[in-house]
């Protein structure tokens, strides 16, 4: 029989005294995809425990959960294991149907939400986050060399383009995909919060994107993410501030 790795969390039912497993999210604190799942769980008001997973160690027990060796991985209270942030987020939205409905309520709305989620998970992550986070932090963890200034410069240049696009969307809509908060906003916030942690956004040049980020930053679901800290890699001075420059 398989024994779960690391810590196993339990909670006591107040009426029966029976212990059940707590929902568990294996994550890396600056992974935008881990943050995306954390935001969905928080918006859905679902209880969960975080387990930091050092993916560069390629632990056998973790590979049994996800042979790809990547975070996030969600282990449900009944033992169900889910991998890949897109799979996890869609599962949570379908399984827990109470508001907010993060993937929309009609085909046209869902199509636009999925387009933007793909934009931030794919294009933004590839052109911005991979460059900046990869060079500044992941090279250190994976022992693959020192930061490349050309790659860092490309990441910041690409980032400015993406922030302009966020601002353009927010000028025309109440939220990025339409009239209400959706998965598009959470996918974007997950990426942007990582870049902002590293201090790589010049907010004075992107006022409309800043307005959007201040709005989502003030939501209760963002509180734990804004509290993230790593002693050897501290955040920008304004990272947790709701009114910032």
From TrEMBL:
Domain GST C-terminal: 106-235
Ranges of residues in domain GST N-terminal: 21-100
Pfam families referenced in this protein's UniProt entry, alphabetically: GST_C_3, GST_N_3
Domain of life: Bacteria
Signal sequence extent: none
Classification via PROSITE patterns: GST_CTER, GST_NTER
Subunit (UniProt): Homodimer.
PANTHER family attached to this UniProt entry: GLUTATHIONE S TRANSFERASE D10, ISOFORM A-RELATED
Protein name: Glutathione S-transferase family protein
Species for this entry: Thalassospira indica
């Amino acid at each position: 029989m398989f024994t779960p790795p690391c810590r196993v969390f339990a909670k006591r039912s107040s009426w029966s005294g029976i212990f059940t497993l707590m929902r568990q999210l294996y994550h890396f604190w600056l992974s935008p995809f881990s943050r995306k799942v954390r935001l969905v769980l928080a918006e859905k008001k679902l209880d969960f425990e975080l387990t930091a997973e050092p993916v560069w160690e390629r632990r056998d027990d973790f590979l049994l959960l996800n042979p790809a060796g990547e975070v996030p991985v969600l282990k449900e209270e009944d033992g169900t294991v889910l991998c890949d942030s897109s799979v996890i987020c869609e599962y949570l939205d379908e399984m827990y149907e109470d508001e907010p409905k993060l993937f929309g309520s009609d085909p046209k709305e869902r199509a636009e939400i999925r387009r933007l989620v793909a934009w931030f998970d794919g294009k933004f992550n590839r052109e911005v986050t991979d460059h900046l986070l990869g060079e500044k932090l992941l090279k250190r963890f994976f022992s693959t060399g020192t930061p490349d200034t050309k790659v860092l410069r490309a990441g910041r240049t690409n980032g400015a383009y993406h922030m302009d696009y966020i601002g353009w969307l927010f000028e025309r809509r109440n939220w990025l995909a339409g009239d209400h908060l959706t998965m598009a906003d959470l996918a974007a916030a997950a990426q942007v919060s990582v870049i902002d942690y590293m201090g790589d956004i010049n907010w004075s040049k992107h006022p409309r994107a800043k307005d959007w980020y201040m709005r989502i930053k003030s939501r209760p679901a963002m509180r734990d993410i804004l509290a993230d800290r790593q002693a050897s890699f501290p955040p920008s001075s304004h990272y947790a501030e709701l009114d910032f420059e």
